[in-house]
Amino acid sequence: MNAVPLRRFAIAALAATAATPSLAQEIVNIGYTGPMSGGAALYGKNVVDGIEMAIKEINAAGLQVGGKAVQLKLVALDDKYSPAEAAVNARRLVQQSKVPAVFVPHSGGIYAAQAFNQQDKFIVMAYSPVPRITETGNKLTVRIPPSFASYIEPFSRYEQRRFGKKVGLLPGDHEYGKAWTQLFSQGWTGLGGEIAANNALSYNKSADFYSGVSRVLAAKPDVLFVGGPSEPTALVAKQARELGFKGGFIVMDQAKLDEMAKITNGLAMLEGSVGLLPLRDDDRQGPKTFVAAFAKAYGAERVPTVDSSYNYALMHALAVAMKLAGTASNAEAIHAKLDEAIKTMPPRFNSGEFRGLDAKGGTLANPRVAVIENGAIKPVSLNELK
User: Fold this and answer.
1) Hey, how many other C-beta atoms are within 10 angstroms of the C-beta on 13?
2) Residue 2's pLDDT is what?
3) What pTM value is reported for the model?
4) Who's near 297: CB < 8 A, 6+ residues apart?
5) How far is 98 from 174, CA to CA, in rounded Å?
């Protein structure tokens, strides 16, 4: 056989291989709109890293949906923590990238997307613990973290016993901060506490909080209620200590104690804090497996957080739901399978140890919390704090 027939034979073989259905891959985009710049940039990066880590694992293992090979791709857009920009990004992701789901890690952006997601048929993967997110009756929403409502009474009792009844409020001025502050204030006063002062701060826009912190400290609070992304929250605590504050901190669940400790140069300035247990201190199998995988993916120097692990777990669940539904594009069918997906996905991917979804679309889980006592992080249960 001469060279020309050989060349023709090779070209024909390649064409036949390319046309083989088993090797054809459908690209399915997954959306994200959240902060990728500004004071919440690290928070947004943690969320994105968890989603991307899961997508890389899913693609490496191979995803078959309805008899077709599917490859997932994350399309991430920066909304600078702005609800208005989140809405614009979500529409763009649905219309241009044809995503079946959009991860949104802030309540303002979640509410904005919920205004049209059922009409436009995409799932809002809502990374915010605000209870209202799943109380609106939106049938295409999943609230990824557990509601923060369960933290309020135990956190308040612990701080009132240890430091006193007067609290100064220094929350973020974003929707999440407003929702936390409203429920927390009711819980604190319901236990006999007093709101000494209230001054919301723009955690995402500033690095100098001295004037706002000073106004609250003038009321001589025993406890400070703080919270937003980890880095600015740590700066608020640091500046409060530098201004002479000796009491404790109630830290909203968006801020992470181990990330804060990097800004405060250790735990000493955070003495008396209560907040979420850092992931590296969680001895359950799901978190331990995730921490090891995260270090391998991003380096041991990075701080793995529940923001990464929870979004990682729900991205894996989303892929399992696609398989169960037999579609990677029908948002309603995929959403209908998410509860089953969480319950049946391999435990090594369930880094949040989620048990499923409740009737309203919120995850069922047992989050771990911690206090800082004598310069060390001490894991505790919510019941122990009551």
Assistant:
1) 10
2) 44
3) 0.87
4) 49, 53, 56
5) 29
CA 52 to mean position of chain CA atoms:
13
Residue 148 · residue 176 · CB < 8 Å: no
Question: Quick one: CA dihedral 325, 330, 336, 342, positive or negative?
Answer: positive
List of long-range contacts for 146-153, beta carbons under 8 Å, 24+ apart: 146/362, 146/363, 146/364, 146/365, 146/367, 147/362, 148/180, 148/183, 148/252, 148/253, 149/183, 150/367, 150/382, 151/253, 151/369, 151/382, 152/183, 152/184, 152/187, 152/188, 153/187, 153/191, 153/386
Which tokens sit at 271? 């003495």
- Going along the chain from its start, the domains and CATH numbers come out as 21-147+284-364 (3.40.50.2300), 149-278+369-385 (3.40.50.2300)
DSSP per-residue codes, 44-72: HHHHHHHHHHHHHHHHHH-EEETTEEEEE
* Sequence-distant (≥ 6) Cβ neighbours of residue 20 within 8 angstroms: none
Burial letters 165-199, b for 16+ CB under 10 A, else e: bbbbbbbbbbbbbebbbebbbebbeeeebebbbbb
Interatomic CA distance for residues 76 and 87, integer angstroms: 14
CB-based burial of residue 262 (10 Å sphere; 0-12 exposed, 13-18 middle, 19+ buried)? middle
The CA-based angle 199-107-249, given to 5 degrees, is: 40
pLDDT tens track for 66-96? 999 999 999 999 999 999 999 999 999 999 9
Q: How far is CA 170 from CA 73, 150, 180, in A?
A: 39, 20, 11
Residue whose entry in the numeric block shows the structure tokens 């735990």: 267
Q: What average pLDDT score do residues 160-185 get?
A: 96
- C-alpha distances (whole Å) from 181 to each of 114, 226, 261 are 22, 9, 23
